[in-house]
Amino acid sequence: RGVPIGGIAGDQQAALFGQTCFEVGDAKCTYGTGAFLLLNSGQEPIPSKHGLLTTVAWTIAGKTTYALEGSSFIAGAAVQWLRDGLGIIKRSADVEALAASVPSSDGVHFVPALSGLGAPYWDPDARGLISGVTRGTTAAHLARATLEGIAFSVADLATAMEADLGRRIARLRVDGGASEDALLMQFQADVLDVTIDRPANVETTALGAAYLAGLATGVFENLDAVKKAHRIERTFAPGMTAADRTGRMKGWHDAIRRARST
User: Fold this and answer.
1) Closest CA to 164 of 262, 44, 253
2) Cβ proximity of 33 and 77 under 8 Å
3) Which residue in 7, 73, 244, 258 is a FRET match for 211, CA 20 to 30 A apart?
């Protein structure tokens, strides 16, 4: 009889569904080679005015749900560069322990524009930049600045998304290999001032495709049944002061301006 095709979805749309982002304003970020933030914008498309993409999330029972999408080209790839290009870690997973060995990046910023800047800047000629280096800077400070640079890039996407949506993102769901880095996830919660949920299964692209197929073939009766099957493994609550957050973001945007081509 063959195998029924119960659903077809792009990877980020599948991850959005896999994170059960079924309500308007629900958002997820996938941390892979790059970082990809998608937000459920409902059944009316929102044309972005802040450098994002407007895309179809899914169509179920004839009703189409749309999403806003922002992509940072480099996320986990920056850690791979530390490993393969600089040789300061042997395995990508080692970056968390190295970064955690210092209390802060000590003013070092790393803009991971190793292949230009994606949303919301769209500057293909921007180049990676490390600033704030002193004689006291160590490999640990660079490792921490790399993780922070990933989080800052996602914060820029979230700020643009909130401006398009007209309200704050209440909660962010995360997935992908780099989401297993607890230091990165905590810093992400801090700079966004948003609670972050990490699911038990961080491979939510595959999970979302499975959920869609299960919904189409009767494994799940409805979206509520899909939600009940979803499990959160850990939650990260923001703990950074507003003054510290503002200062950190100012330093990041100063570094972004230096990395830009114009």
Assistant:
1) 44
2) yes
3) 73
CA nearest neighbour of 54 among 36, 42, 64, 66: 66
Alpha-carbon radius of gyration of the chain: 19
Decide: residue 202, CB within 10 A, 0-12 exposed, 13-18 middle, 19+ buried: buried
- Rounded to whole angstroms, what are the CA distances from 45 to 24, 42, 53, 65? 11, 7, 10, 8
Query: To 5 degrees, how large is the angle CA 169–CA 254–CA 166?
Result: 20
pLDDT one-digit tens code per residue, 109-163: 999 999 999 999 999 999 999 999 999 999 999 999 999 999 999 999 999 999 9
Residue 136, CB half-sphere, CA atoms under 13 Å: how many?
7
3 state SS of 225: helix
Structure tokens at 120: 């919301």
φ/ψ region of 252 (left if φ > 0, alpha if ψ in -120 to 50, else beta) reads alpha
SS3 54: strand
φ, ψ dihedrals at 243, nearest 5°: -65, -40
DSSP conformation letters of 63-88: EEEEEEEEEES-SHHHHHHIIIII-S
pLDDT tens digits, residue range 151-168? 999 999 999 999 999 999
Q: What is the rounded end-to-end Cα distance, in angstroms, of the chain? A: 59
CA nearest to 150, candidates 101, 180, 124, 111: 111
Residue among 189, 204, 183, 77 nearest 140 (CA): 183
Residues in the chain, total: 262
